[in-house]
From TrEMBL:
Keywords, comma-separated and alphabetical: DNA-binding, Transcription, Transcription regulation, Zinc
Domain of life: Eukaryota
GO molecular function, a single term: DNA binding
Lineage: Eukaryota, Fungi, Dikarya, Ascomycota, Pezizomycotina
InterPro entries: XlnR/Xlr1
Protein name stated in the entry: Transcription factor domain-containing protein
Keyword Transcription found: yes
Keyword Zinc: yes
Length: 303
């Protein structure tokens, strides 16, 4: 899980292979582990190998399957960027398989939500435990939904912010751009839900910032290219992202999130005609983003 996450953060190859994990047991839910019930032999059948489904509220139950899928995306991205072989292979079958994995995860997330819905809305107020269960379920589903949409973006889109804005190969006219844009809007809606349920973004601060950033780059591209023609839906999504970055840096103060927040605020100011001498110029915004590169020689967040 950490290996896949850091592979994305620092744009580096994976250190652990899937076949090294195929015979390992999947982690038991935290509730069983902390209660010691995994020793009794009554905690249900143990499962081996990789999973692509949400199974519980803890980080292994909902986040580990997403990182398993991310591993495939990171691996495929590295192969695509190979200087000699990357352009010689058709990637459609690989992308289709990863899309299928994400669809399986989405289906399991809906089942998980139904299973842990904790009854009718009126029951929550009468039963605090049931209400807390419902709240935790909604929070897990919101975070998982956001990261799932970001994985769709990573599968179909460009990872590097500067290459994204320069768009030398007219990717903005492709079908994959439309797919990535749809996922970016859906991810922003999930962020709205997250901010309502977890206003200070304290649920998984050491992980979430990376996905918040990669899920926001398409919105920045739209705002940058469309400028004053940007539609209200994209502007609202960008404003939601700014709010999320503001909450995130209070909980876990990271420079890349502060920098991206400044870039997004400057872009929004330009759209609304509020630019003044203190705002970043487009060239300055690209200079700030160039600190974080996901090119073949880029190091991601490592500067």
């Amino acid at each position: 899980m950490i290996d896949r996450h850091l592979g994305l953060c620092y744009n580096r190859p994976l250190a652990m292979l899937d076949n090294e994990c195929e015979d390992l047991y999947q982690p038991v839910p935290d509730t069983l582990w902390q209660a010691g019930e995994f020793y009794t032999g009554n905690s249900g059948p143990k499962r081996r190998g990789l999973s692509f489904q949400c199974t519980s509220h803890d980080v292994f139950g909902f986040f580990l399957p997403l990182m398993t899928i991310l591993g495939d995306i990171v691996d495929m991205n590295a192969q695509k960027n190979h200087p000699r072989f990357g352009q010689r292979t058709s990637w459609e079958s690989f992308e289709s398989e990863i899309t299928h994995q994400l669809e399986r995860y989405a289906y399991s997330l809906q089942e998980f939500k139904t299973q842990h819905g904790c009854g009718a809305p009126g029951d929550d107020a009468a039963d605090p435990i049931r209400g807390e269960c419902a709240h935790q379920t909604r929070k897990v589903v919101a975070y998982a939904t956001h990261i799932m949409h970001v994985l769709h973006i990573l599968l179909h889109g460009k990872w590097d912010p500067v290459a994204l804005l320069e768009d030398d190969n007219m990717w903005i006219c492709s079908q994959s751009f439309l797919s990535a844009t749809s996922s970016a809007i859906s991810a922003a809606h999930a962020v709205e839900e997250i901010l309502e349920l977890d206003p200070d973004l304290s649920f998984m601060p050491y992980f979430f910032g990376m996905y918040l950033l990669q899920g926001s780059l398409i919105l920045l591209l739209l705002a940058d290219k469309l400028s004053t023609e940007t539609n209200d839906g994209v502007i609202r999504a960008c404003e939601t992202i700014v709010r999320a970055h503001e909450a995130a840096v209070v909980t876990l103060n990271t420079e890349y999130q502060r920098n991206f927040r400044k870039v997004m605020i400057s872009t929004l100011a330009q759209i609304k005609g509020h630019s003044h001498s203190r705002e970043m110029s487009p060239a300055k915004r690209r200079e700030v983003l160039s600190l974080y590169r996901w090119t073949s020689l880029g190091n991601g967040l490592a500067i």
